[in-house]
Amino acid sequence: AAGRMSIEVEALLQEAKESIEAAQNYRSELQLRLQGLVQARKQIRGSATQTREVLRQHFQELQGSVSRLLGERLAELLREVDAIEQESVRPLDDCQKLIENGVSTADELLREGEAALRCGIGEKDDKLGSFTKKALQIQLDSLPEVPSLVEVPCLSAQLDDSLLPGVKERIFSHGSVASHPPVQIDELVERPGGILVRWCRVDDDFVAQDYRLQYRRGAAGQYEEAYIGKETEFIVLHIDPHTDYLFRVCARGDGRREWSPWSIPQTACTTLAPHEWRVGSEGYSLSSRRNIALRNDMPPARAGVLYSSSPTYFCGQTLTFRWVCCHPRRVYLTLLLISPPGAVFVNGKEMTNQLPAVTVGSAVTFDMEVVSLLPVNNDISDGGNFKLRVTIGSGNREVVFDWVLDQGVDCLFFGCSFTYPGWKVLVF
Fold it and tell me: Any idea where the Fibronectin type-III domain is (predicted)?
Protein backbone atom coordinates (compact mmCIF):
# COMPACT_ATOMS: atom_id res chain seq x y z
CA ALA A 1 0.00 0.00 0.00
CA ALA A 2 2.86 2.37 0.86
CA GLY A 3 4.50 1.64 -2.52
CA ARG A 4 1.25 2.32 -4.30
CA MET A 5 0.87 5.64 -2.48
CA SER A 6 4.44 6.59 -3.33
CA ILE A 7 3.77 5.93 -7.01
CA GLU A 8 0.59 7.99 -6.86
CA VAL A 9 2.45 10.84 -5.15
CA GLU A 10 5.19 10.75 -7.78
CA ALA A 11 2.55 10.75 -10.48
CA LEU A 12 0.86 13.73 -8.86
CA LEU A 13 4.20 15.50 -8.51
CA GLN A 14 5.02 14.84 -12.14
CA GLU A 15 1.59 16.04 -13.19
CA ALA A 16 2.00 19.15 -11.02
CA LYS A 17 5.42 19.85 -12.59
CA GLU A 18 3.96 19.47 -16.03
CA SER A 19 1.08 21.77 -15.11
CA ILE A 20 3.51 24.35 -13.71
CA GLU A 21 5.62 24.14 -16.87
CA ALA A 22 2.51 24.45 -19.01
CA ALA A 23 1.39 27.45 -16.94
CA GLN A 24 4.80 29.05 -17.32
CA ASN A 25 4.71 28.51 -21.07
CA TYR A 26 1.17 29.82 -21.17
CA ARG A 27 2.18 32.92 -19.23
CA SER A 28 5.17 33.47 -21.51
CA GLU A 29 2.99 33.20 -24.59
CA LEU A 30 0.46 35.61 -23.10
CA GLN A 31 3.24 38.07 -22.28
CA LEU A 32 4.51 37.82 -25.84
CA ARG A 33 1.01 38.54 -27.08
CA LEU A 34 0.77 41.51 -24.73
CA GLN A 35 4.03 42.80 -26.18
CA GLY A 36 2.55 42.28 -29.63
CA LEU A 37 -0.50 44.29 -28.60
CA VAL A 38 1.75 47.04 -27.26
CA GLN A 39 3.62 47.15 -30.57
CA ALA A 40 0.35 47.12 -32.52
CA ARG A 41 -1.07 49.94 -30.40
CA LYS A 42 2.20 51.85 -30.77
CA GLN A 43 2.05 51.45 -34.54
CA ILE A 44 -1.55 52.68 -34.67
CA ARG A 45 -0.92 55.66 -32.38
CA GLY A 46 2.39 56.53 -34.01
CA SER A 47 1.12 56.26 -37.58
CA ALA A 48 -2.00 58.27 -36.67
CA THR A 49 0.14 61.05 -35.14
CA GLN A 50 2.43 61.04 -38.15
CA THR A 51 -0.52 61.08 -40.55
CA ARG A 52 -2.09 64.04 -38.74
CA GLU A 53 1.17 65.95 -38.98
CA VAL A 54 1.55 65.11 -42.66
CA LEU A 55 -2.02 66.25 -43.38
CA ARG A 56 -1.63 69.50 -41.44
CA GLN A 57 1.68 70.33 -43.06
CA HIS A 58 0.40 69.46 -46.54
CA PHE A 59 -2.76 71.53 -46.26
CA GLN A 60 -0.91 74.45 -44.66
CA GLU A 61 1.56 74.44 -47.54
CA LEU A 62 -1.30 74.05 -49.99
CA GLN A 63 -3.22 76.90 -48.38
CA GLY A 64 -0.13 79.12 -48.49
CA SER A 65 0.52 78.21 -52.12
CA VAL A 66 -3.09 78.87 -53.15
CA SER A 67 -3.11 82.17 -51.26
CA ARG A 68 0.16 83.17 -52.92
CA LEU A 69 -1.12 82.21 -56.36
CA LEU A 70 -4.35 84.14 -55.82
CA GLY A 71 -2.37 87.14 -54.65
CA GLU A 72 -0.11 86.95 -57.70
CA ARG A 73 -3.12 86.68 -60.00
CA LEU A 74 -4.82 89.62 -58.28
CA ALA A 75 -1.67 91.73 -58.60
CA GLU A 76 -1.40 90.84 -62.30
CA LEU A 77 -5.01 91.84 -62.97
CA LEU A 78 -4.58 95.09 -61.04
CA ARG A 79 -1.50 95.87 -63.15
CA GLU A 80 -3.62 95.31 -66.26
CA VAL A 81 -6.24 97.75 -64.90
CA ASP A 82 -3.54 100.34 -64.20
CA ALA A 83 -2.07 99.95 -67.68
CA ILE A 84 -5.46 100.29 -69.43
CA GLU A 85 -6.39 103.27 -67.25
CA GLN A 86 -3.15 105.11 -67.99
CA GLU A 87 -3.30 104.33 -71.70
CA SER A 88 -6.92 105.43 -71.94
CA VAL A 89 -6.61 108.60 -69.86
CA ARG A 90 -3.57 109.95 -71.73
CA PRO A 91 -5.55 111.16 -74.82
CA LEU A 92 -8.14 112.74 -72.54
CA ASP A 93 -5.38 114.58 -70.69
CA ASP A 94 -4.04 115.87 -74.00
CA CYS A 95 -7.53 116.99 -75.05
CA GLN A 96 -8.07 118.64 -71.69
CA LYS A 97 -4.84 120.61 -72.05
CA LEU A 98 -5.93 121.73 -75.50
CA ILE A 99 -9.35 122.87 -74.24
CA GLU A 100 -7.85 124.61 -71.23
CA ASN A 101 -5.43 126.47 -73.54
CA GLY A 102 -8.44 127.45 -75.71
CA VAL A 103 -10.35 128.69 -72.68
CA SER A 104 -7.35 130.74 -71.60
CA THR A 105 -7.01 132.20 -75.08
CA ALA A 106 -10.77 132.99 -75.19
CA ASP A 107 -10.58 134.73 -71.80
CA GLU A 108 -7.70 136.87 -72.99
CA LEU A 109 -9.59 137.70 -76.22
CA LEU A 110 -12.69 138.67 -74.23
CA ARG A 111 -10.70 141.00 -72.07
CA GLU A 112 -9.18 142.62 -75.12
CA GLY A 113 -12.64 142.97 -76.80
CA GLU A 114 -14.20 144.50 -73.71
CA ALA A 115 -11.25 146.88 -73.41
CA ALA A 116 -11.63 147.87 -77.05
CA LEU A 117 -15.30 148.66 -76.51
CA ARG A 118 -14.50 150.88 -73.51
CA CYS A 119 -11.75 152.89 -75.15
CA GLY A 120 -12.20 156.41 -76.47
CA ILE A 121 -13.33 157.52 -79.94
CA GLY A 122 -9.78 158.23 -81.10
CA GLU A 123 -8.49 154.74 -80.16
CA LYS A 124 -11.61 152.67 -80.80
CA ASP A 125 -10.93 152.07 -84.51
CA ASP A 126 -7.42 150.79 -83.90
CA LYS A 127 -8.41 148.70 -80.89
CA LEU A 128 -11.42 147.18 -82.58
CA GLY A 129 -9.43 146.43 -85.76
CA SER A 130 -6.66 144.73 -83.79
CA PHE A 131 -9.21 142.75 -81.79
CA THR A 132 -11.09 141.64 -84.93
CA LYS A 133 -7.88 140.55 -86.65
CA LYS A 134 -6.77 138.54 -83.61
CA ALA A 135 -10.20 136.89 -83.32
CA LEU A 136 -9.97 135.80 -86.95
CA GLN A 137 -6.52 134.24 -86.32
CA ILE A 138 -7.81 132.21 -83.38
CA GLN A 139 -10.56 130.58 -85.47
CA LEU A 140 -13.31 130.78 -82.89
CA ASP A 141 -15.49 128.43 -84.91
CA SER A 142 -12.95 125.52 -84.60
CA LEU A 143 -13.60 123.34 -81.52
CA PRO A 144 -11.60 120.23 -80.39
CA GLU A 145 -13.41 116.90 -80.62
CA VAL A 146 -14.26 115.31 -77.28
CA PRO A 147 -14.90 111.50 -77.39
CA SER A 148 -18.27 110.30 -76.26
CA LEU A 149 -18.62 107.98 -73.32
CA VAL A 150 -19.26 105.00 -75.58
CA GLU A 151 -15.95 105.66 -77.32
CA VAL A 152 -13.75 105.63 -74.24
CA PRO A 153 -12.93 102.50 -72.22
CA CYS A 154 -15.21 101.50 -69.39
CA LEU A 155 -13.19 98.98 -67.34
CA SER A 156 -14.78 95.94 -65.76
CA ALA A 157 -13.72 92.59 -64.33
CA GLN A 158 -14.86 89.33 -65.89
CA LEU A 159 -14.84 86.62 -63.20
CA ASP A 160 -15.73 83.00 -63.83
CA ASP A 161 -18.24 81.87 -61.25
CA SER A 162 -17.48 78.22 -62.07
CA LEU A 163 -13.98 78.43 -60.57
CA LEU A 164 -15.08 78.12 -56.97
CA PRO A 165 -17.36 75.08 -57.51
CA GLY A 166 -14.59 73.39 -59.52
CA VAL A 167 -11.98 74.16 -56.89
CA LYS A 168 -14.38 73.12 -54.17
CA GLU A 169 -14.93 69.76 -55.86
CA ARG A 170 -11.18 69.21 -56.25
CA ILE A 171 -10.53 70.23 -52.65
CA PHE A 172 -13.19 67.92 -51.27
CA SER A 173 -11.71 65.02 -53.25
CA HIS A 174 -8.09 65.93 -52.56
CA GLY A 175 -6.18 63.47 -50.39
CA SER A 176 -7.31 60.30 -48.71
CA VAL A 177 -6.65 58.35 -45.54
CA ALA A 178 -5.98 54.63 -45.68
CA SER A 179 -5.80 52.21 -42.78
CA HIS A 180 -3.20 50.11 -44.61
CA PRO A 181 -0.69 50.89 -47.37
CA PRO A 182 -1.77 49.27 -50.66
CA VAL A 183 1.54 47.34 -50.91
CA GLN A 184 3.34 45.34 -48.25
CA ILE A 185 6.59 43.41 -48.17
CA ASP A 186 5.69 39.74 -48.37
CA GLU A 187 9.04 37.98 -47.99
CA LEU A 188 12.68 38.73 -47.27
CA VAL A 189 15.12 35.98 -48.27
CA GLU A 190 18.81 36.13 -47.55
CA ARG A 191 21.12 35.74 -50.51
CA PRO A 192 24.91 35.81 -50.69
CA GLY A 193 25.76 39.43 -50.09
CA GLY A 194 22.18 40.50 -50.64
CA ILE A 195 18.50 40.27 -49.74
CA LEU A 196 15.74 39.10 -52.05
CA VAL A 197 12.71 41.31 -51.37
CA ARG A 198 9.25 40.22 -52.50
CA TRP A 199 6.14 42.34 -52.12
CA CYS A 200 2.45 42.12 -52.98
CA ARG A 201 -0.68 44.25 -53.20
CA VAL A 202 -2.96 44.06 -50.17
CA ASP A 203 -5.60 46.37 -51.65
CA ASP A 204 -7.47 44.62 -54.43
CA ASP A 205 -8.93 47.90 -55.66
CA PHE A 206 -5.47 49.44 -56.13
CA VAL A 207 -4.08 48.99 -59.65
CA ALA A 208 -0.30 49.42 -59.52
CA GLN A 209 1.60 50.88 -62.45
CA ASP A 210 5.08 50.89 -60.87
CA TYR A 211 6.71 49.83 -57.63
CA ARG A 212 9.46 51.54 -55.68
CA LEU A 213 11.82 49.82 -53.24
CA GLN A 214 14.14 51.55 -50.76
CA TYR A 215 16.46 50.32 -48.04
CA ARG A 216 18.74 51.70 -45.37
CA ARG A 217 21.33 50.33 -43.00
CA GLY A 218 20.19 50.19 -39.38
CA ALA A 219 17.51 52.29 -37.76
CA ALA A 220 19.16 55.61 -38.60
CA GLY A 221 20.37 57.17 -41.80
CA GLN A 222 18.77 57.93 -45.13
CA TYR A 223 16.90 55.47 -47.32
CA GLU A 224 18.54 54.60 -50.64
CA GLU A 225 16.75 53.84 -53.88
CA ALA A 226 17.03 50.19 -54.86
CA TYR A 227 14.45 49.61 -57.57
CA ILE A 228 11.69 51.28 -59.58
CA GLY A 229 9.75 49.14 -62.03
CA LYS A 230 6.88 46.76 -62.61
CA GLU A 231 8.34 43.60 -61.00
CA THR A 232 7.23 42.45 -57.55
CA GLU A 233 10.62 41.24 -56.38
CA PHE A 234 14.19 42.47 -56.46
CA ILE A 235 17.57 41.38 -55.10
CA VAL A 236 19.31 44.17 -53.20
CA LEU A 237 23.03 43.53 -53.50
CA HIS A 238 26.06 44.96 -51.69
CA ILE A 239 24.55 44.08 -48.32
CA ASP A 240 27.02 43.60 -45.49
CA PRO A 241 26.55 40.21 -43.77
CA HIS A 242 25.25 40.10 -40.19
CA THR A 243 23.96 43.67 -40.42
CA ASP A 244 20.32 44.69 -40.07
CA TYR A 245 18.75 46.58 -42.98
CA LEU A 246 15.31 48.17 -43.19
CA PHE A 247 13.28 47.74 -46.38
CA ARG A 248 10.13 49.51 -47.51
CA VAL A 249 8.10 49.58 -50.72
CA CYS A 250 5.39 51.76 -52.24
CA ALA A 251 3.50 51.87 -55.52
CA ARG A 252 2.19 54.34 -58.06
CA GLY A 253 -1.40 53.88 -59.15
CA ASP A 254 -2.31 53.47 -62.78
CA GLY A 255 -2.40 56.89 -64.42
CA ARG A 256 -1.18 58.68 -61.28
CA ARG A 257 1.99 60.66 -60.69
CA GLU A 258 2.17 60.51 -56.91
CA TRP A 259 3.41 57.48 -54.95
CA SER A 260 1.33 55.64 -52.38
CA PRO A 261 2.24 55.60 -48.67
CA TRP A 262 5.22 53.44 -47.76
CA SER A 263 4.72 49.93 -46.50
CA ILE A 264 5.57 49.01 -42.92
CA PRO A 265 9.39 48.79 -42.83
CA GLN A 266 10.70 45.25 -42.47
CA THR A 267 14.10 44.29 -41.04
CA ALA A 268 16.32 41.62 -42.55
CA CYS A 269 19.95 40.61 -42.66
CA THR A 270 22.01 38.04 -44.51
CA THR A 271 24.45 35.60 -42.96
CA LEU A 272 25.77 34.53 -46.35
CA ALA A 273 29.04 35.92 -47.66
CA PRO A 274 28.80 37.54 -51.09
CA HIS A 275 29.94 35.67 -54.20
CA GLU A 276 33.35 36.90 -55.31
CA TRP A 277 35.74 36.04 -58.11
CA ARG A 278 39.25 34.95 -57.24
CA VAL A 279 41.83 37.74 -57.27
CA GLY A 280 44.91 37.38 -59.44
CA SER A 281 43.50 35.20 -62.23
CA GLU A 282 45.34 35.89 -65.46
CA GLY A 283 43.26 37.37 -68.25
CA TYR A 284 40.61 38.91 -65.99
CA SER A 285 40.06 42.25 -64.29
CA LEU A 286 37.75 42.50 -61.27
CA SER A 287 35.57 45.29 -59.88
CA SER A 288 36.20 46.77 -56.44
CA ARG A 289 33.69 44.38 -54.87
CA ARG A 290 35.10 41.49 -56.93
CA ASN A 291 31.66 40.41 -58.11
CA ILE A 292 32.14 41.65 -61.70
CA ALA A 293 34.80 40.09 -63.95
CA LEU A 294 36.01 41.48 -67.28
CA ARG A 295 37.89 39.34 -69.79
CA ASN A 296 40.73 41.60 -70.86
CA ASP A 297 42.89 41.62 -73.97
CA MET A 298 45.27 38.87 -72.88
CA PRO A 299 45.75 36.16 -75.56
CA PRO A 300 43.37 33.16 -75.22
CA ALA A 301 46.22 30.77 -74.52
CA ARG A 302 47.14 32.61 -71.30
CA ALA A 303 43.60 33.17 -69.98
CA GLY A 304 42.36 30.17 -68.06
CA VAL A 305 39.30 29.48 -65.97
CA LEU A 306 38.18 32.15 -63.52
CA TYR A 307 36.99 30.55 -60.27
CA SER A 308 35.21 31.91 -57.24
CA SER A 309 37.35 32.96 -54.29
CA SER A 310 35.65 30.42 -51.99
CA PRO A 311 32.91 27.76 -52.09
CA THR A 312 30.03 30.15 -51.37
CA TYR A 313 27.33 28.35 -53.35
CA PHE A 314 25.05 25.99 -51.40
CA CYS A 315 22.37 23.67 -52.74
CA GLY A 316 18.95 25.21 -52.48
CA GLN A 317 20.19 28.67 -53.44
CA THR A 318 20.02 30.41 -56.78
CA LEU A 319 23.30 31.36 -58.44
CA THR A 320 22.94 34.07 -61.09
CA PHE A 321 25.31 35.26 -63.80
CA ARG A 322 24.29 38.48 -65.54
CA TRP A 323 26.10 39.55 -68.69
CA VAL A 324 26.98 43.22 -68.46
CA CYS A 325 28.54 43.18 -71.93
CA CYS A 326 29.15 40.40 -74.42
CA HIS A 327 31.45 39.17 -77.15
CA PRO A 328 29.96 37.16 -80.05
CA ARG A 329 31.95 34.02 -79.19
CA ARG A 330 31.10 31.29 -76.75
CA VAL A 331 31.39 31.38 -72.96
CA TYR A 332 32.40 28.37 -70.87
CA LEU A 333 31.09 27.58 -67.43
CA THR A 334 32.33 24.72 -65.28
CA LEU A 335 30.78 21.45 -66.57
CA LEU A 336 28.56 23.56 -68.80
CA LEU A 337 28.97 25.31 -72.13
CA ILE A 338 26.61 27.99 -73.39
CA SER A 339 27.12 29.36 -76.89
CA PRO A 340 25.72 32.81 -77.75
CA PRO A 341 22.80 31.30 -79.73
CA GLY A 342 21.76 29.46 -76.55
CA ALA A 343 23.01 25.91 -77.14
CA VAL A 344 23.72 24.07 -73.87
CA PHE A 345 26.40 21.39 -73.49
CA VAL A 346 26.78 19.27 -70.32
CA ASN A 347 30.06 17.38 -69.97
CA GLY A 348 30.56 17.78 -73.70
CA LYS A 349 27.09 16.51 -74.65
CA GLU A 350 24.64 18.91 -76.23
CA MET A 351 21.30 19.05 -74.49
CA THR A 352 18.02 18.83 -76.41
CA ASN A 353 16.59 22.00 -74.94
CA GLN A 354 18.09 25.34 -75.82
CA LEU A 355 18.34 28.57 -73.85
CA PRO A 356 17.73 32.02 -75.33
CA ALA A 357 20.68 33.78 -76.93
CA VAL A 358 23.09 35.48 -74.54
CA THR A 359 22.96 39.27 -74.94
CA VAL A 360 23.66 42.33 -72.82
CA GLY A 361 21.43 42.11 -69.74
CA SER A 362 20.87 38.36 -70.08
CA ALA A 363 20.85 36.38 -66.84
CA VAL A 364 21.61 32.67 -66.43
CA THR A 365 20.55 31.10 -63.14
CA PHE A 366 21.63 27.83 -61.51
CA ASP A 367 19.48 26.03 -58.97
CA MET A 368 20.64 22.75 -57.46
CA GLU A 369 18.95 20.29 -55.14
CA VAL A 370 20.01 16.94 -53.71
CA VAL A 371 18.07 14.15 -55.38
CA SER A 372 19.46 10.99 -53.76
CA LEU A 373 22.52 8.97 -52.84
CA LEU A 374 23.05 6.29 -55.50
CA PRO A 375 24.96 3.06 -54.80
CA VAL A 376 27.82 2.36 -57.22
CA ASN A 377 27.24 -0.86 -59.26
CA ASN A 378 24.31 -1.57 -56.97
CA ASP A 379 26.84 -2.35 -54.21
CA ILE A 380 26.12 -0.27 -51.15
CA SER A 381 29.45 -1.26 -49.61
CA ASP A 382 31.29 0.65 -52.36
CA GLY A 383 29.85 3.88 -51.06
CA GLY A 384 27.30 6.15 -52.64
CA ASN A 385 27.41 8.57 -55.51
CA PHE A 386 25.97 12.01 -54.86
CA LYS A 387 23.24 13.04 -57.27
CA LEU A 388 22.28 16.67 -57.78
CA ARG A 389 19.50 17.97 -59.96
CA VAL A 390 20.62 21.11 -61.73
CA THR A 391 18.15 23.59 -63.23
CA ILE A 392 19.61 26.19 -65.58
CA GLY A 393 17.32 29.05 -66.49
CA SER A 394 17.57 31.97 -68.86
CA GLY A 395 14.65 34.19 -69.81
CA ASN A 396 11.56 31.98 -69.90
CA ARG A 397 13.43 28.73 -70.71
CA GLU A 398 14.92 26.07 -68.42
CA VAL A 399 17.24 23.10 -68.86
CA VAL A 400 17.24 20.37 -66.22
CA PHE A 401 19.78 17.55 -65.83
CA ASP A 402 21.12 15.29 -63.10
CA TRP A 403 24.74 15.67 -62.03
CA VAL A 404 26.32 12.63 -60.33
CA LEU A 405 29.32 13.20 -58.05
CA ASP A 406 31.62 10.72 -56.36
CA GLN A 407 30.91 12.15 -52.92
CA GLY A 408 28.53 14.45 -51.14
CA VAL A 409 29.29 18.16 -50.94
CA ASP A 410 28.00 20.91 -48.69
CA CYS A 411 29.16 23.85 -50.78
CA LEU A 412 30.51 24.44 -54.25
CA PHE A 413 32.94 26.64 -56.12
CA PHE A 414 31.85 28.11 -59.42
CA GLY A 415 33.82 29.32 -62.38
CA CYS A 416 33.72 30.51 -65.95
CA SER A 417 36.03 30.90 -68.91
CA PHE A 418 35.86 33.38 -71.79
CA THR A 419 37.89 32.55 -74.88
CA TYR A 420 37.79 36.09 -76.26
CA PRO A 421 38.03 39.52 -74.60
CA GLY A 422 35.06 41.82 -74.18
CA TRP A 423 32.97 39.64 -71.86
CA LYS A 424 31.88 41.10 -68.54
CA VAL A 425 29.82 39.09 -66.08
CA LEU A 426 28.22 39.90 -62.70
CA VAL A 427 27.67 37.06 -60.24
CA PHE A 428 25.20 37.16 -57.36
Answer: 181-274
Separation CA 240–CA 268 (nearest Å): 11
Which CATH architecture does the domain made up of 284-374+383-427 adopt?
Sandwich (2.60)
Answer yes or no: are the C-beta atoms of 320 and 367 closer than 8 Å: no
pTM confidence score: 0.62
Q: Do you know the residue count of the chain?
A: 428
User: What dotted CATH number matches 183-270?
Assistant: 2.60.40.10
pLDDT tens for 246-267 read: 999 999 988 888 898 899 999 9
Nearest one of 285, 289, 293 to 333, comparing CA atoms: 293
Phi, psi dihedral angles at 168 (to 5 degrees): -60, -45
Domain residue spans in the chain? 1-177, 183-270, 284-374+383-427
Of 325, 326, 286, give the one whose Cα is nearest residue 306.
286
State the amino acid at position 266 in one-letter form. Answer: Q
Nearest to 212 by CA among 161, 186, 251: 251
- Give the integer Cα–Cα distance in Å for 176 and 190: 36
**Share in percent of the chain as helix, strand, coil (round to 5):** 35, 30, 35
